[in-house]
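Anyone up for a design puzzle?
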């Protein structure tokens, strides 16, 4: 049995917490408002930005998951969540003499700056254009270079129950395809939880894994598939390119699969079908 701390126990963290608790692990869920944690998860009220609140950590933890997310889209909020938070948590663990076996950090595919639809994997260059990706990389560095062996899972866009923006837009008729082929890399919440659990159980994990499903896809293909499945009109392509700068790459999760992970929802088709 593991003694697990999930720091930032929100959408993904709660799915992971519920699964691990059901398997008999002792699971602590940390967040500022822990009143909403799943049953069987022991609540810890603390603010990862404030070291003074981190004295409440339980002893004898074996695995730490860091799944906190930024409160908003500013650089300050990203720094607080992905740099200050992991740094404070690791310092608090060390100060208490805690030596967990592993800390697993949820990063993001935003660490890749590739924008021409290239395939990327864990060895591809990470040269993000925005501060978001840069702060994630900083956080990765803190976890990988820290006192506890660190593993990073770079997640794509997370969807699942309660996070159905694609479905909602297609259903309401508000969806529009980007003017040019733009790839989306997605992962169902249950696979986020499954992959994190898998990384906890691996004997000798690599330092970094991509956490995306097996089918990066043109956003327009996804919308057209949804429209056909829902019996709605196929969204048209926008006539002008978006001015929003965003990456455009196809992420490969071969390393995760080679390590033994089996996706519950290998592509958006199975994942969305389960939600419809
Ligand atoms: N959403 C995506 O598509 C996506 C894509 C790639 C990567 N990721 C990453 O995946 C991870 C999980 O995402 P998610 O969607 O599950 O996030 P989420 O639902 O927003 O959950 C984040 C949790 O962190 C807690 N938290 C935030 N700041 C905190 C602080 N200072 N101290 C303690 N707890 C704090 C929040 O609870 P309180 O407000 O109660 O504190 C919340 O429960 C995050 O690291 C995120 O950056 C997400």
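Challenge accepted. My sequence:
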């Amino acid at each position: 049995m593991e003694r697990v701390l999930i720091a930032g126990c929100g959408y993904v963290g709660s799915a992971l917490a519920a699964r691990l608790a059901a398997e008999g692990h002792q699971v602590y869920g940390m967040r500022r408002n822990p009143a909403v944690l799943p049953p069987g998860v022991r609540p810890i009220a603390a603010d990862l930005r404030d070291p003074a609140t981190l004295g409440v950590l339980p002893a004898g933890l074996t695995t730490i998951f860091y799944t906190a997310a930024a409160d908003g889209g500013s650089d300050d909020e990203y720094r607080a969540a992905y740099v200050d938070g992991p740094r404070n948590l690791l310092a608090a663990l060390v100060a208490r003499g805690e030596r967990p076996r592993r800390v697993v950090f949820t990063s993001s595919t935003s660490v890749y700056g590739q924008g021409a639809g290239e395939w990327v994997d864990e060895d591809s260059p990470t040269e993000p254009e925005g501060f978001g990706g840069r702060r994630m990389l900083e956080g990765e560095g803190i976890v990988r270079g820290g006192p506890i062996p660190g593993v990073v899972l770079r997640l794509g866009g997370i969807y699942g129950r309660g996070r159905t923006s694609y479905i909602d837009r297609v259903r309401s008729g508000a969806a529009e395809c980007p003017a040019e082929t733009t790839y989306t890399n997605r992962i169902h919440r249950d696979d986020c939880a499954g992959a994190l659990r898998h990384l906890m159980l691996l004997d000798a994990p690599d330092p970094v894994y991509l956490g995306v499903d097996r089918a990066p896809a043109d956003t327009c293909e996804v919308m057209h598939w949804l429209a056909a499945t829902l019996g709605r009109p196929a969204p048209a392509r926008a006539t002008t390119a978006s001015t929003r700068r965003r990456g455009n790459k196809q992420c490969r999760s071969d390393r995760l699969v080679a390590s033994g992970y089996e996706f519950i929802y290998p592509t958006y088709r199975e994942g969305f079908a389960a939600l419809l």
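A detail worth pointing out: Residues 8-13, 30-33, 47-49, 67-69, 81, 85, 106, 108, 155, 157-158 surround NAP (CB under 6 Å).
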